[in-house]
Automatic annotation (TrEMBL):
Pfam family membership, one: 4HBT
Protein name: Phenylacetic acid degradation protein
Domain Thioesterase, first and last residues per copy: 183-256
SUPFAM superfamilies from the UniProt entry: Thioesterase/thiol ester dehydrase-isomerase
The species this protein was found in: Mycolicibacterium setense
């Protein structure tokens, strides 16, 4: 399934290849997509893919009067994942998600990430089941022509505010194109942005590339783009071969809406 360009999934080039209560498969392109803070290749789009495909499996488990919202997302990548993706960027990353365990207050999905048939990671998405909201935005059913914006920052409607000195900041611009069906910034866009700032915060000026190994995101409250809305990250530790950074999404009200921790190696 192709999505219109005026939706978050279409904007990011996501294609759903298969969907059912037992298995959902989707892909995302990575060619030419660079971290706007570092100008380096990035695995951030994978977070968008996982939020979609893992959340979709969980969404199938809802009751008729329920809706689902992401509460946690976690990604674990193999040591050579970035190298494989960068070596053949024209090949999309594919995620296959399945339900994991019984449904409770929330549902858990388990995904496998592959690139050109080789496993490059695993991921989980935990979703809360809530009462269906009174108003759900209906995305257009028709596919629009054209292609998504070339630059990743334009696809995600973010702009660089700060980079360097162990810190990184991206502004989340208000744009309905990156909002989900309940009118807040799509969870995949937020998760990808947190990866961008966290990985950039680890930059130490040596030029040695960091490889993201794990990303864990907690969704605390609704996050909307705005004048002061931003993603901030700061390095907690930068060693000879490993680094850890924390990141958060902060809304116009000054409150933290999402938290993330990233671990990287080189």
């Amino acid at each position: 399934m192709h999505y219109p360009l005026n939706t978050p999934l279409g904007r990011m080039g996501v294609q759903t290849l298969e969907e059912s209560p037992d298995r959902c498969v989707a892909s995302i392109p990575v060619a030419g997509l660079l971290n706007p803070l570092t100008s380096a290749p990035t695995v951030a789009p994978v977070a968008m893919l996982i939020d979609h495909v893992g959340g979709l499996v969980n969404h199938y488990r809802r009751d008729d009067d329920e809706w689902t919202v992401s509460s946690e997302l976690a990604i674990e990548l193999t040591p050579h994942a970035m190298d494989l993706i960068a070596a053949a960027p024209e090949v999309p990353v594919v995620a296959t998600a399945r339900p994991f365990g019984p449904k409770g207050t929330g549902s858990l999905s388990l995904s496998e990430l592959t690139h050109d048939g080789e496993v490059v990671g695993t991921a989980t998405v935990r979703s809360f089941h809530i009462h269906a909201p009174g108003h759900v935005i209906t995305w257009p059913a028709d596919s629009t022509g054209g292609t998504p914006p070339a630059a990743l920052q334009d696809r995600m409607s973010v702009e660089v505010a700060e980079s360097g000195g162990g810190a990184a900041v991206l502004r989340q611009l208000p744009n309905p194109v990156v909002n989900n069906s309940i009118g807040i910034v799509h969870g995949g866009v937020s998760a990808a942005s947190l990866e961008l700032v966290a990985s950039a915060a680890l930059g130490d000026g040596t030029g040695t590339a960091w490889r993201t190994a794990s990303l864990r995101v907690n969704y605390l409250s609704q996050f909307r783009g705005g004048i002061e809305s931003r993603y901030e990250a700061r390095a907690l530790r930068t060693g000879r071969s490993s680094g850890v950074a924390d990141a958060q999404a902060i809304g116009d009200d000054g409150k933290v809406a999402l938290l993330a921790r990233l671990t990287a190696y080189r």
